[in-house]
Design a protein that fits this description.
Blueprint lengths: L2 H12 L5 H10 L19 H18 L1 H6 L6 H10 L8 E9 L6 E9 L8 H9 L6 H8 L10 H10 L1 H18 L4
Antiparallel strand pairs: 1-2
Helix pairs in contact: 1-3, 1-5, 3-5, 3-9, 5-7, 6-7, 7-9, 8-9
């Protein structure tokens, strides 16, 4: 099964709310979601990297939510639909966000300079990061407050926001903390800049 087939399967199997079909149509036919990189150089900076990252976050969040300590001690639970929504869609803000450009680089084998492609940011909707994903998803389907907060604050303390606001959000909305952990695990352990 390809990454795209797996994403669509998980999405259709779990996300049943009104507007979900229109959002999936947007992702498939009016955006570069399935081909975009996840970043310009930090993690999954390759074609399809955003899709792979979204699936990695989904897998990490599912694993995190199944840990006995999390379930028993913290009573952190979420429906399969909520887990799919926040994990698969947390970085929708990155669709139609990157473009391919070219720069000169020296070929180590030949010693010749040649044009090589790279990704650069071309933000046509400068609305932040997590809040932009919430805004975009909400244009198609309704999010619960917990889902919106999880997507909004998924960067945790690695974002540029006021640390007191981040801490309060993570304390008030445990799913936001869980998604932040899953995002970091995927970004730094599974993907990383060298993988």
């Amino acid at each position: 099964m390809t990454d795209k087939e797996r994403f669509i399967h998980i999405y259709n199997e779990n996300i049943k709310r009104e507007g979900a079909d229109k959002l999936l149509d947007f992702l498939e036919n009016k955006s570069d979601f399935f081909t975009a990189p996840a970043s310009t150089r930090y993690h999954n900076a390759f074609e399809g990297g955003l899709l792979r990252h979204s699936l990695n976050v989904y897998d990490c969040l599912c694993d995190y939510m199944e840990r006995p300590r999390i379930k028993e001690q913290y009573k952190l639970t979420a429906s399969a639909e909520t887990i799919a929504v926040v994990a698969l869609l947390h970085d929708v803000c990155k669709v139609n966000f990157y473009r391919v450009s070219y720069r000169n680089a020296k070929n180590d084998k030949t010693g010749q300079w040649e044009k090589v492609p790279y990704y650069e940011i071309n933000d046509t909707l400068p609305y932040g990061h997590g809040e932009k994903s919430v805004y975009m998803v909400s244009g198609f389907m309704r999010l619960s407050r917990e889902e919106a907060m999880a997507i909004r604050w998924h960067m945790g303390f690695s974002g540029i926001e006021d640390k007191n606001s981040v801490g309060k959000a993570l304390e008030m909305f445990p799913l936001a903390f869980a998604l932040s952990v899953a995002d970091m695990e995927a970004s730094y352990f599974l993907e990383g800049s060298e993988k």
